[in-house]
Amino acid sequence: MEIEGQATVKESQPPKFALPVDSEHKATEFRLFSVAAPHMRAFHLSWVSFFACFVSTFAAPPLLPIIRDNLNLTASDIGNAGIASVSGAVFARVAMGTACDLFGPRLASASLILITAPAVYFTSIASSSTSFLLVRFFTGFSLATFVSTQFWMSSMFSAPVVGTANGVAGGWGNLGGGATQLIMPLVFGLIRDIGAIKFTAWRIAFFIPALFQTLSAFAVLIFGKDLPDGNFGRLQKAGDKTKDKFSNVFYHGIKNYRGWILALSYGYCFGVELTIDNIVAEYFYDRFDLKLHTAGMIAASFGLANIVSRPGGGMISDAVGKRFGMRGRLWALWIAQTLGGVFCIILGRVGSLGASIVVMIVFSLFCQAACGLTFGVVPFVSRRSLGLISGMTGGGGNVGAVLTQLIFFRGSKYSKDRGIMLMGVMIICCTLPICLIYFPQWGGIFCGPSSTKIATEEDYYLSEWTSEEKEKGLHLSSLKFADNSRRERGRKEDSETRPVDESPSTQV
Predict the structure, then answer these.
(1) Which family does the record claim for this protein (predicted)?
(2) Among residues 280, 212, 234, which one has the least CA distance to residue 104?
(3) Could you give the percent of the chain with pLDDT greater than 90?
(4) Of 401, 198, 175, which Cα lies nearest the Cα of 292?
(5) N or C: which end of the chain has fewer CB atoms below 10 A?
(6) pTM to 2 decimal places
């Protein structure tokens, strides 16, 4: 692989990859059942570790009817603990994004997982509402691994498949929110049947997610690579990767308004998902007088829909992106999330168990597809501050969850069914600003590319670098990314502007 004027001995003997790659050595194909290093191995490590963190963070809700009796928790205590579980990751996600930009997703992810694992173990010794709130708060920090997951996929997969990679990795990780609704009641029941009393059995049960989380961190450290060509540290020492400054990464990420809009929007797809994970088991248990295990199974169906819904959102984003470019990605996101809000309103109004289950599943499909669609757009907002933009967006999801639970599900101001209905209204309102996202080289929902001046991908991504930095060659990675992102013009525009002799991605 060579770029004109930049050929080196190292580039004349490029590394071999199992998947076809572009000029950045990012995979241009996504092979789900492959474990080939480094691309697909990174995919499987990222979703499994994120899955483990999701299981740990939401291990408590399916056992709340038991825990609340043991610790004498009030409705406000439970609401506060639910808020604490998602509020911890708000700033952690922004910090994780910056850590990924500076140190790489492998080290950043594994470090956070190991730091938060003790909080999961300590849940077993919680003895009051305060200690229960604290362990849920610190466990919730682990949800910031979502950012490293999305950053890792955006670093490993090229524009044609990055939405799919992000969607499947995020969706399968989010499955932990549904799987834990099944796992924890089963583990609790097994331990109780062996002979432990119920107030002891729920405590022992927490060792299972804690151990799973710990093992996943070591797997990431041992088997993962930050980039297709190696880890950040080695590449920086060899001079193959520039070590950026925090101030530059922060400045170019924070000033990009598109990141703020996506953070707001994500607050009412992923944020709503977190909220539902916290309240849905108790909602069905109390409203329809179900058994604990039955309520857990119904609640699990919401999170388990991630096996197809969020990956489907990512695939749809790539499909419409291939045909209609970035404008297609934005349209698909706005439509899916708005429909999610509509079905959320309906869920809050239906009164029968059967109808509630059906509407909840349809709602989950649109809500989670919107999450995948969001991260079909995020990788293109900024090349230099990709991690920070991912962190801002991911943190927005947690802010949305915190605000929603504070407003609608804390205490007894609203019944849960009315809170769910009002949450649907909020989803629709907070999705509207997507219409304001505009890329001068690609356009937005209502407007095409800028006609007042020639706008190219190079103009957009190289604007993040100063002339002095360009003279030092620090911008070359952004130059490659700009070239590989031309597909976001859409099929027609891209065919009209792409040079005839431009070579496609190759297997190297």
Answers:
(1) Belongs to the major facilitator superfamily. Nitrate/nitrite porter (TC 2.A.1.8) family.
(2) 234
(3) 62
(4) 198
(5) C
(6) 0.82
Using alpha carbons, select from 234, 273, 292 the residue that is nearest to residue 420.
Answer: 273
- Work out the percent of the chain whose per-residue pLDDT is above 70: 93
Helix (H) or strand (E) holding 315: helix 309-324
Report pLDDT for 335.
Answer: 97
pLDDT at 499: 45
At which residue do the structure tokens 């950040």 appear?
Answer: 232
Is residue 359 within 8 A of residue 417, CB to CB? The reply is no
Is the separation of the CB atoms in 372 and 162 below 8 Å? no
Q: What is the pLDDT of residues 279-294, one digit of tens each?
A: 888 888 888 888 877 8
Measured in degrees and rounded to the nearest 5, phi and psi for residue 159 equal -50, -40
CB 270, CB 371: distance < 8 Å? yes
Average pLDDT value for residue range 46-52: 96
- Cβ-based neighbours of 166, under 8 Å, separated by 6 or more: 150, 153, 154, 157, 314, 372, 375, 376, 378, 379
Return the higher-pLDDT residue of 175 and 155: 155
Q: Which amino acid is at 394?
A: G
Q: Which residues are within 8 A (CB) of 15 and not within 5 positions of it... i.e. 6 or more apart?
A: 25, 228, 229, 508
Residue with tokens 């299972």: 208
Q: Quick one: pLDDT at residue 20?
A: 94
Report pLDDT for 135: 95
Strand partners, 506: 21
Tokens 């944020």, located at residue:
271
Average pLDDT, the chain: 88
Q: Where are the domains of the chain?
A: 35-228+245-444
CA distances from 211 to 56, 123, 218, 316 (A): 10, 13, 11, 36
Write out pLDDT tens, residues 379-418: 999 999 999 999 999 999 889 988 998 888 877 678 888 9
Phi/psi class of residue 476: alpha, beta or left (left: φ > 0; alpha: ψ in -120 to 50)? alpha
Alpha-carbon gap, residue 206 to 111, rounded angstroms: 21
Residue type, 251: Y
Dihedral sign, Cα of residue 454, residue 457, residue 462, residue 463: positive
Q: What is the DSSP string of 77-128?
A: HHHHHHHHHHHHHHHHHHHHHHHHHHH-HHHHHHHHHHHHHHHHHHGGG--S
Count of beta carbons in the 10 Å neighbourhood of residue 17: 18
Residue-wise pLDDT tens digits, 448-462: 887 766 689 999 999
The SS3 call for residue 466 is coil
**CB of 312 within 8 A of CB of 373?**
no
CATH of 35-228+245-444, one of 3.40.50.12370, 3.40.50.300, 3.40.50.11690, 1.20.1250.20: 1.20.1250.20
